[in-house]
């Protein structure tokens, strides 16, 4: 049973596993979506920039076939060729830019945009012929074959439909003027490319969920791997102690002055700590000057001892203040009575201790009672 739990990959990948996979280049990708994006960008460019390119090519052909006496006397082939090529350079550069943006936009849509050196690093297992045969004849190879057949079927059907629909019109183009024929041919070509792009998007709509499922299965973990990763993230006791000490130092620096101004510090007694200040005539109501849990609570208690600020144990009231009020804010109105009772005891604490009077019991309204996780206790 233990071997089964440790060997079968039945657990969803952890955030760390996903992050490590991304750093190694194992990201969600779809070649079909990339092809569809590039083809669609090309179709859009043909619809917008095609006439510009056609006009540039026509001017290029006209100038190439036309010459006069000046062209013979001042013959400079380099300048002539450069001038001709510059006319078509801008439209072609626009086409390259559009397709490049489409290629980059594909991983951006899938959330996989980024350059990773580990993805292009040398991998010796890629040279293993047995691994290559397994990829070809395994489930991945069968899936890729089915995808290729689906592409051929879809694109072939679209091509047949387009050809059958426009065949009669194309065969009669030569009967009209050449300009009209070229315009009609260009429109037919743009429409065909656009339809092909939509067909590729339909295929990508099937491919992307398949890629998501395949990657999810590839990243699955065994129960033992999850346990080992959890142990690594927990770290050694020495490391956790060092982290806790750094947290306490940071909390002490940020809370030192606030705790010195506090009238009382309420504790949980160990998980939470809330420092309250009330100055009659200055504060409209008690103010939470510092609050924290864990290492921050430890730092607040240590600072309170250092500054000789009274500390009282009120678990329910401490949690209520922690989860309902931020540092620097007045307490909630429904906690006025409970906090006023505590402050009245604190302001007369010396006399109360001399007379042996215990700290008062306070009632916390049910709607502000919480457990240590912040869930309503009621």
UniProtKB/TrEMBL annotation:
Residues annotated as region Disordered? 1-21, 223-247
Whether Nucleotide-binding counts among this entry's keywords is: no
Residues crossing the lipid bilayer are 33-53, 88-110, 145-163, 189-213
Listed A to Z, the keywords are: Cell projection, Cilium, Flagellum, Membrane, Transmembrane, Transmembrane helix
- SUPFAM superfamilies in the record, alphabetically? EscU C-terminal domain-like
The answer on whether this UniProt entry bears the keyword Ribosomal protein reads: no
Amino acid composition bias (Basic and acidic residues), ranges on this chain: 223-233
Entry-linked PANTHER family = FLAGELLAR BIOSYNTHETIC PROTEIN FLHB
Q: Which family does it belong to?
A: Belongs to the type III secretion exporter family.
> What protein am I looking at?
Flagellar type III secretion system protein FlhB
Report the source organism: Sphingomonas morindae
């Amino acid at each position: 049973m233990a071997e089964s739990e440790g060997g079968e990959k039945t657990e969803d990948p952890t955030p760390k596993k996903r992050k490590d996979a991304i750093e190694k280049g194992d990201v969600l990708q779809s070649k079909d979506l990339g092809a569809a994006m590039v083809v669609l960008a090309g179709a859009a460019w043909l619809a917008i920039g095609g006439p510009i390119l056609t006009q540039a090519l026509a001017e290029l052909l006209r100038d190439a076939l036309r010459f006069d006496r000046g062209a013979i006397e001042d013959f400079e082939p380099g300048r002539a060729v450069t001038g001709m090529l510059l006319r078509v350079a801008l439209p072609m550069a626009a086409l390259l830019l559009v397709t490049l943006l489409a290629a980059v936009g594909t991983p951006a849509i899938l959330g996989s945009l980024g350059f990773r050196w580990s993805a292009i690093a040398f991998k010796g297992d890629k040279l293993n012929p047995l691994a290559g045969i397994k990829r070809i004849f395994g489930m991945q190879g069968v899936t890729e074959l089915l995808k290729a057949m689906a592409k051929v079927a879809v694109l072939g059907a679209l091509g047949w439909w387009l050809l059958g629909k426009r065949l009669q019109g194309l065969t009669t183009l030569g009967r009209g003027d050449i300009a009209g024929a070229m315009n009609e041919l260009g429109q037919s070509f743009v429409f065909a490319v656009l339809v092909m792009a939509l067909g590729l998007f339909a295929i990508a709509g099937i491919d992307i969920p398949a890629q998501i499922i395949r990657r999810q299965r590839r990243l699955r973990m065994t129960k033992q791997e999850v346990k080992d990763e959890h142990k690594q993230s927990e770290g050694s006791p020495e490391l956790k102690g060092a982290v806790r000490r750094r947290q306490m130092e940071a909390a002490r620096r940020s809370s030192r002055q606030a705790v010195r101004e506090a009238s009382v510090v309420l504790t949980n007694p160990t998980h939470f700590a809330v420092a309250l200040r009330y100055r009659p005539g200055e504060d409209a109501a008690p103010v939470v000057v510092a609050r924290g849990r864990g290492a921050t609570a430890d730092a607040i208690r240590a600072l309170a001892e250092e500054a000789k600020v009274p500390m009282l144990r009120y678990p329910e009231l401490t949690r209520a203040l922690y989860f309902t009020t931020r540092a620097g804010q007045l307490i909630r109105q429904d906690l006025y009575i409970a906090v006023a009772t505590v402050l009245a005891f604190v302001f007369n604490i010396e006399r109360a201790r001399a007379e042996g009077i215990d700290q008062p019991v306070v009632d916390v309204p049910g709607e502000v009672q919480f457990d240590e996780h912040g869930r309503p206790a009621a």
